[in-house]
């Protein structure tokens, strides 16, 4: 059984046995391609969460209404991506095997691959909902197959042929990524206003298939006007309200979300603390939405 962390995300004070949702941090950013610092994201979210309330006015619910356990940050090997991914997979596997919902706080986006490896072993037909500014579909980045620029490509390679990656807010990538996406993923590039009807149609499709779903949220899906503290900021993103609405829609749609992550906060790149405060609020809302869906 996992042991309690010394400093929990606010309100996540349940014991492991009773918890339906289990947080864990994956402080890794060794393949970051532009500005490093995401390894400090999970600890910052946890520490700065005490600047917000446990109650959500948006969902009229409180984290304290639910049993949520925070297992703290993993100690990952920065010199080996494969070693780090293996440790992440082991933690997610343990949580899943105990019938609980894993919520991982990154870290750079490559950490998602470790969690997805664990999820696929329990749910071979899992699909992925992916919020991100970047396609993350490169076959390699400067010769490296394990890179945050390649994470969705690596996930797709181990997914069932019938499963799909549904990509939202994408507004950056090289031409080959978009050509690849046209054949292999369901990408909805963000070239203007975010269209929630497209998300609703996707959720209806997933609900009709009764397929398990993994949710991954790269915080650079948000416009850097709202969240500049990220390694590869990309203008033209969505705002807090649109992301919040999307999270609530996903978890209230009736689809079977079996795990999730939030990643790519680099807190030291925004000394105002505003990016971390926003990441804390998104984390709170995701926890509550996930917990309500499991009631």
Give a short summary of the structure.
This protein has 295 residues and is α/β, with parallel strands linked by helices.
Topology:
Elements: E1 21-26, H1 41-48, E2 55-56, E3 61-62, E4 68-73, H2 81-97, E5 101-106, H3 111-122, E6 127-131, H4 151-158, E7 165-168, H5 175-184, E8 186-188, H6 196-209, E9 212-218, H7 240-252, E10 256-263, H8 274-293
Parallel strand pairs: 1-4, 1-5, 5-10, 6-7, 6-9, 7-8, 9-10
Antiparallel strand pairs: 2-3
Characterization of this structure:
The chain is built from 8 helices and 10 strands. It has 295 residues and is of the alpha/beta class. It has one domain: Arginase, Chain A. A hairpin with a 4-residue loop joins strand 2 and strand 3. The longest helix has 20 residues. It is globular, with a radius of gyration of 17 Å. 55% of the residues are buried. The model has no long low-confidence stretch (mean pLDDT 96).
Work out the number of β strands: 10
Helix residue percentage:
25-40%
Just give the CATH class. Alpha Beta
- By CATH, the superfamily comes out as Ureohydrolase domain
What's the helix count?
Answer: 8
The helix-and-strand class reads alpha/beta
Q: Radius of gyration, Cα only, in angstroms?
A: 17 Å
- Give the ordered list of helices and strands: EHEEEHEHEHEHEHEHEH
Task: Give the integer mean of the pLDDT values.
Answer: 96
What is the beta-strand fraction? 15-25%
Distance between the termini: 23 Å
Q: Uncertain regions: pLDDT < 50 for 5+ in a row?
A: none
Shape assignment: globular
* CATH overall fold name: Arginase, Chain A
> What is the architecture at the second tier of CATH?
3-Layer(aba) Sandwich
- Domain count: the total is 1
Q: How would you write the strand order of the largest sheet? A: 4-1-5-10-9-6-7-8
Report the major sheet: 8 strands, parallel
């Amino acid at each position: 059984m996992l042991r309690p962390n010394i400093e929990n995300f606010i309100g996540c004070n349940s014991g492991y046995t009773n918890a339906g949702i289990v947080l864990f941090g994956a402080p890794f950013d060794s393949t970051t391609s532009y500005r490093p610092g995401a390894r400090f994201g999970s600890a910052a979210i946890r520490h700065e969460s005490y600047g917000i309330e446990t109650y959500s006015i948006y969902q009229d619910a409180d984290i304290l209404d639910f049993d949520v356990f925070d297992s703290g940050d993993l100690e990952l090997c920065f010199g080996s991506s494969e070693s780090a991914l293996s440790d992440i997979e082991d933690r997610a596997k343990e949580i899943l095997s105990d019938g609980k919902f894993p919520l991982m706080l990154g870290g750079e986006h490559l950490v998602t691959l470790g969690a997805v490896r664990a999820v696929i072993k329990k749910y071979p037909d899992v699909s992925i909902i992916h919020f991100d500014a970047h396609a993350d579909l490169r076959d390699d980045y400067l010769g490296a197959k394990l890179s945050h620029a390649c994470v969705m490509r690596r996930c797709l390679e181990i997914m069932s042929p019938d499963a799909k990656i549904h990509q939202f807010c994408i507004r950056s990538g090289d031409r080959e990524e978009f050509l690849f996406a046209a054949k292999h993923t369901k990408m909805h590039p963000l070239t203007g206003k975010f269209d929630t009807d497209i998300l609703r149609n996707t959720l209806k499709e997933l609900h009709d298939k009764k397929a398990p779903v993994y949710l991954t949220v790269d915080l650079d899906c948000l416009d850097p006007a709202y969240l500049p503290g990220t390694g590869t900021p990309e203008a033209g993103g969505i705002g807090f309200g649109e992301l919040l609405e999307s999270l609530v829609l996903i978890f209230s749609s009736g689809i079977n979300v079996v795990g999730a992550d939030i990643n790519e906060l680099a807190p030291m790149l925004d000394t105002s603390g505003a990016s971390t405060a926003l990441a804390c609020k998104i984390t709170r809302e995701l926890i509550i939405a996930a917990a309500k869906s499991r009631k």
